[in-house]
Structure formats: C-alpha cells, structure tokens
UniProtKB/TrEMBL annotation, chain A:
Name listed for the protein in its UniProt record: Uncharacterized membrane protein YjjP (DUF1212 family)
Source organism phylogeny: Bacteria, Bacillati, Bacillota, Bacilli, Bacillales
Family membership: Belongs to the ThrE exporter (TC 2.A.79) family.
Organism: Thermaerobacillus caldiproteolyticus
InterPro entries, sorted: ThrE-like_N, ThrE_Dicarb/AminoAcid_Exp
Residue stretches spanning the membrane: 144-161, 173-191, 198-216, 231-251
Keyword Membrane: yes
Topology within the bilayer: Multi-pass membrane protein
Any GO BP annotation: succinate transport
Record GO terms (molecular function): transmembrane transporter activity
Automatic annotation (TrEMBL), chain B:
Protein name: Uncharacterized membrane protein YjjB (DUF3815 family)
GO CC annotation, single: plasma membrane
Organism, scientific name: Thermaerobacillus caldiproteolyticus
Broad class of the protein's primary localization: membrane
Transmembrane segments: 6-23, 51-71, 78-98, 110-134
Record's keyword terms, sorted: Cell inner membrane, Cell membrane, Membrane, Transmembrane, Transmembrane helix
All copies of domain Threonine/Serine exporter ThrE, residue ranges: 6-134
Family: Belongs to the ThrE exporter (TC 2.A.79) family.
Top-rank lineage group of the source organism: Bacteria
C-alpha cells in the first residue's frame, strides 16, 4: 500500500512537470492534456483526468486513493524547442524506452536548460525578417535598412520592457510606440521613404502569431475556455501594437 | 524576377520567425519552406486578380496541410511548422491603415478596413480548420480500415 502510493505520487509528479514545461513554452492546451494522460497511461495508470487552462493545470489520478493536484502557471513564453523535447520524451515513455526515474531526470534537465537561441541571434533574425516583410508587402529595397533597424529595436524594446514591467500589454505598447517613432524619424531625416511600409514591416515580429494559431486549434478540439482566453490575449496584443502606432501617428 | 524576390524574402522571413519562436535548429529550413510555399500561393493568386480573402484561405489551408505532413514525417508537434507559415498572411497592412484612419477621425473608411481585416483573419482561421477537418477524416477512415 505504502509502495503503491509513492509510485502514484512519482507518476503524478512526472506528468505535472511535463505539463508545466509544455504550457510554459506555449504548447496548445489539448496537446498538454494529451501528453499528460499518455504518460500516466504508459506507467500503468488507467484512469487519469487532466484539466488545463492557459494559467493552470489540474491533474487527478484515480485509484484506491484518488489524488488531485493543482499547479499554477504564471509565466508563459514561446519556446518551440522545449515542446518538441518534451514531446519526444513522452514518445519514448510510451514505447517503453525510458523508466520513471530516467524520464524524471531528463525532464528536470529540460526544465532547467535554456535552449533559447542567443539574444543577438534573435534580434538579427527579427531585423532581417522585418526587412523581408517590407519587400513582401511591396515596399522598395531602399527602405530595407530602416525597416531592419526599426524591427530589431522593436524586439529589443519588447524584451527589455517586459523584464522591467511585468505587464505584457504595456511592454508591447511601448515597443510599438518606439517603432513608430523611429520610422517617422527615419522618414523625416530622409533615411527612409515610405512610412507606411516601414512601420508595417517592422511591427511584424511583435504579431501574436503563435497565440492566434493556438487559440484556433484549441477552440476546434473543444477547449473553449483556453481557446477564448488565448484569443483574448492575442486581441490584447494586437490592440497594444495598434494603439502604440496610433499614438505616434496622432502626433504627426 | 518579382517572384524570385518574393520567394527569397518569404523564406528568410519565415525562418527568421522560427528563430524568434525558438524552433529546433533542424526544423528552421522546413519552417522557411512552409512559409515560402504559403506566401507564394497567396502572392500569385492575389496578383492574378483573386480576392485577398480567397487567396488567404487557399494559402492558409495549404500551409496547414503541409505542416501536418511535416509533423507526421519528422514526429514533431505541428505548431512548429504552422506558426511560421501563418505569420506572413496576417493582415498587418490593413490593420495599420485602419488604425491610421481611426486616428485621422475618418471612421467610415476605418470601419471598412477593419471589416476587411476581420474577413482575412477569418479566412486564415477557416483554412486552418478546414485542413484540420480533413486530417481528422483521414485519421478516422484509417482507424476503420484497420
């Protein structure tokens, strides 16, 4: 009996950790639920229920002693690599390649590892992407460098402000404001030419693409609460960007 | 010439988004390919006189299908591929124009543009949903066969 409880406890711990990592890295809600239940099932727990919302996980294992645990998730970032890693661990568990302790160990490693690309690379990627978006939206090549600078600065600002003020809306608003300000400045001093295209191109790295796709996928599989709340988050981000740009334009 | 320009820029932009979202290294090129194919469908349809809504629908549907194929092939979660592909289709330009009109107190054209942007976002969603439905049907029919 004692053994049985500690085993269940361990499985529960493992499932919750996997779920927490995935949710914090920005996975779809239904994928988190699915992964947790799969892991539990492959360790011989037949009845388990998970309820995941973007801000918390409730997981319960049924047996002689039914156990339920709740985990609160406050910090959400985008880290597709961690999602892929946890996914492959859960695959290995299902095929029986990983024992309970091994799986726990490797999840611990993933949780503490920082798999992010170096910050300078992210900034470079954002600036080059901004320049490319300018061309895709029928801008001219002579505006390429202004858009690159504005886009790169925008991502730096959003990361920096988010560290400073933990309110995402404000960070995005300020970043969009600075992008708009820089673009207007570039056009005023004759460095850039088409204000509209520069702003549109350089705002693109802030667009909540992951949230939109996740919201839709969650809604479609019936996770109405998560889908709607992610949709609301995406809407708020869009609103922040829009009002930041509008703030600059209204001064012109 | 224009097509090559669009192909190259959309590939780089989508792969760049892969880096921002921290996609695994070995998937970056595939992210770029997904984004490129989606954008080129949109671009060709739009320059040949199709409505932007129809072009977006076709492109997002294609992106979703190809992401599903990649996800199956490389055994990775589907969002890694679909996110980078969807981003170029987001109607940023329209939203910007709408915002500018709002600021200039021209509410009539602003609402017009907002409606257009909403239609395009809706068609992105419809494209995603559509291919999801196809995927479910294929999966179900496979289950029945076994």
């Amino acid at each position: 009996m004692e053994n049985q409880t500690s085993y269940t406890d361990k499985v529960m711990e493992l499932c919750l950790m996997a779920g927490k990592i995935m949710l914090e890295s920005g996975a779809e809600t239904y994928r988190v639920e699915d992964t947790m239940m799969r892991i539990a099932a492959s360790f011989g727990i037949r009845e388990s229920h998970s309820y995941v919302t973007p801000t918390g996980i409730i997981f319960s294992i049924e047996g002689e002693l039914t156990k339920t645990k709740l985990i609160r998730v406050t910090e959400r970032t985008t880290d597709l690599e961690k999602i892929a890693e946890v996914n492959s661990i859960s695959r290995k568990i299902s095929s029986g390649d990983l024992s309970l302790d091994e799986a726990y160990q490797s999840l611990k490693e993933i949780e503490s590892a920082s798999l992010q690309y170096p910050f300078w690379l992210q900034i470079t990627a954002a600036s080059i992407a901004s320049g490319c978006f300018l061309i895709m939206f029928k801008g001219e090549w002579r505006d390429f460098i202004p858009a690159m600078i504005a886009g790169g600065v925008g991502l730096v600002c959003v990361t920096y402000f988010h560290r400073l003020v933990p309110i995402k809306f404000l960070a995005e608003f300020l970043a969009a404001f600075i992008i708009g300000f820089l673009s207007v400045l570039f056009v005023k001093i004759g460095f850039g030419y088409q204000l509209d295209k520069i702003i549109i191109g350089s705002v693109m790295p802030l667009v909540p693409g992951l949230l939109i796709t996740n919201a839709v996928r969650d809604l479609m599989v019936g996770h109405l609460v998560s889908g709607l709340s992610k949709g609301a988050e995406a809407f708020l981000t869009a609103l922040a960007i829009g009002s930041g740009i509008a703030g600059v334009l209204s001064f012109m | 010439m224009v097509i090559i320009e669009q192909l190259v820029t959309s590939f780089i932009a989508s792969a760049g988004f892969g880096i921002i979202f921290n996609a695994p290294k070995q998937t970056l090129v595939k992210c770029g390919l997904v984004g490129m194919s989606g954008w080129i469908i949109y671009f060709i349809m739009e320059t040949n006189g199709f409505e932007p809504v129809a072009a977006t629908l076709a492109a997002s549907c294609f992106i979703s299908v190809i992401s599903q194929v990649f996800a199956k092939m490389y055994k990775t979660p589907i969002i890694i591929f679909s996110v980078a592909g969807i981003i170029p289709l987001v109607p940023g330009g329209l939203a910007y124009d709408a915002m500018r009109n709002f600021v200039q107190n021209d509410y009539n054209s602003a609402i017009n543009l907002v409606a257009k942007a909403t239609m395009i976002s809706g068609s992105i969603v419809m494209g995603l949903v559509f291919s999801e439905v196809i995927n479910q049907i294929i999966r179900k029919s496979k289950l029945k066969c076994n």
